[in-house]
Amino acid sequence: MQIYGVVGWKNSGKTGLMERLVTEITGRGFSVSTVKHAHHSFDVDHPGKDSHRHRVAGAREVLLASKSRWALMHELRDEDEPTLEELLTKLSDVDLVLVEGYKRDAHRKVEAHRQETGNALISPEDPTIRAIASDVALDNEKPVFDLNNTKEIADFILSDLGLSA
Q1: pLDDT value for 165
Q2: Is residue 48 part of a domain?
Q3: Is the residue at 22 inside a domain?
Q4: How far is it, in rounded angstroms, from Cα 156 to Cα 143?
Q5: SS3 of 148, please?
Q6: Element housing 62 (H / E)
Q7: At residue 151, what are phi and psi to the nearest 5 degrees?
Q8: pTM of the predicted model as reported, rounded to 2 decimal places
Q9: Are 128 and 106 a contacting pair, CB within 8 Å?
């Protein structure tokens, strides 16, 4: 299972790039899963639903299942946040796991960058960032792609990982 990340500051285009990359790469016949890091509390459940009631009652894990999908919710209950490496063990085997966030982890990454955010690039201090996807031309030692040229970015990622269709 290969891993490649998309990192960048808030509003840099990470999520849109991830979505387009999943479409592009699965369209080439590869199986893809994703991991998204959230810096805030989130909930995939809703108050009043049976599964929410189970969690509030104290269940450590609640598994929801239907004929369309299943989801496992795990309450940390004062445990430390799991590492990316630990979370990856929870996934089924696929050709590629695209990771949004986890910018400090050691896997290879592409940085999403939008000039309008006013943020400096992360890549100059991070050797794990292999390329930049930007909405403006940049003079950089690392390859720079148009943020909206999903095909070229996907070509780069797959080549960097040694995957070919």
Answers
A1: 63
A2: no
A3: yes
A4: 9
A5: coil
A6: strand 61-65
A7: -60, -50
A8: 0.90
A9: yes
